[in-house]
Amino acid sequence: MKKSRLFVVLLFLVGFIFPVGEAGAVFLLIAPGAAAQGTGEANVARVDDAYASYYNPASLAFQNKTSIVGMHVNWLKTLVPDLYYEFIGFASPGYGGTIGGHLIFLSLGEQLATDADGNELGNFKSYMWALDASYGTKLTANSGVGIGFKLFHQKLADSVTEDESGEGKPYSTDFAFDISYLLRKQKQFGLIEKLYNIAGIESFDSGKDKFRFGFNIANIGPPISFIDEDQADPAPTNMRLGFFSNLYEDQFIRFNMLMDMQKLLVASYPSMDWDGDRMIGDGIGGSSNNNGDGQNESAYFDPWYKAWATAWLDDWHYGGDIDFDGNRYIGGYHWTDGLNGGLLDGSPQPEELFPETDDNPEGMYGCQDCAEASGIDGNNVFESDIGEVVKELGSKDDRTFSKEFEEIILNTGFEFWYTESFVLRFGYIYDREGDITNPTFGAGVKFDGYGFDFGYTAGEQGHPRSNTLFFSISAEI
Description:
- This protein has helices at 4-15, 34-38, 52-55, 191-198, 304-310, 368-373, 402-406, and strands at 67-73, 84-94, 97-114, 120-140, 143-155, 171-186, 209-220, 238-249, 253-264, 268-269, 272-273, 300-301, 321-322, 333-337, 381-383, 387-391, 409-418, 422-431, 436-447, 450-457, 468-476.
- Strand 18 (422-431) and strand 19 (436-447) form a beta hairpin.
- The radius of gyration is 26 Å and the shape is globular.
- Helix content is 10%, strand content 40%.
- It has a domain at 4-265 and 408-476: monomeric porin ompg (Porin), CATH 2.40.160.40.
- By secondary structure, the protein is mainly β.
- Strands 1-2-3-4-5-6-7-8-9-17-18-19-20-21 form a 14-stranded antiparallel barrel. The chain has a three-stranded antiparallel sheet with strand order 14-16-15, with no helix packed on it. The chain has a two-stranded antiparallel sheet with strand order 10-12.
- The protein has seven helices and 21 strands.
């Protein structure tokens, strides 16, 4: 079957949540809650309700009331009108701490299936869901830890396509777990508040904390595969570090600042020449991906227990020259067709620019002299009327530690509370790798234990994340 619309949906879903294609099940990274969306998705240290099972299960340790939350959003509506996301969560004290959990459902809409000849075979629906159970307990009066376990399912189609091989199915069911921590520093209380605390009348209210630090490592689990286990993707293990600070507070007004830092703890490597012999494995036409030292030079990723460390090293310290065109030979430059992005294998070759030499046996991979003779100044990328030239030989030298910082996502937000009932929020999402630089806004009302929040993501016209509205409700029982 042919499912081009589904492919487009998944491509944008990956590209506008996290850096392209490093992990599977990226729907687990969609941040729930209109309040969090209003503060640029910063929430790992601030969260004080049932959204804790997603952002920071350790926060559950300080919640002593049963609560429920829910959110609905038409996700990426400028791309696909029938794609939507639902979230419902709960928290309830008990068993020496507080238990919580949530259910996520993402509908990818209805797709049209066709066969290899383009004949329509009918419609099918694609969706994903995740079910989580979490628990948080105190370590000390002002610190806590939390854990979470989730089961998630992805259904992409009803059957495999005609050109797909393998005994798998176009759906998968997998599991993962979270670990988290929260530290808080409370403000100095007056006599009345101290008496309330002594009497045990206390709630986890943001107005009582001057500062908080939290972290959560989420989605730790085995690789995710569909049709072919050899093409499995790593789970989207994601680290969040967060800070919360109460900048000002008086009898009626409270002003808070929030900041999160996120990074995927996924270490993935493209096909690279690790031993410097200018070949991938045993070279062009070879069948082995291992070099003479027995090291795998084809694309692969580290297991999660190793990726926690190597995710900070894979893009600059580890590896060698990159085989961009996949021909198993590191040939200096790879010329692509500017019209369709493909190799010029079956098209007239620019032989006057890339003559056959010892370094360029097929007339396709130019040596440095050939490239410079054609006007290429040796930079990593050169644009021309013919296409794009990407350097292979020496591409290792272009990688620096700054690449790792480009993959870090920063979420910054502010809250302005008037009494305990009204709040205005604004924030900013900065994701250089994912091309997301969107301001956010929000508001909320809270009365007698019931709350309603609204969030809005702004941005440039046409950006898939722009003009997205979020609505969520909460209730304390």
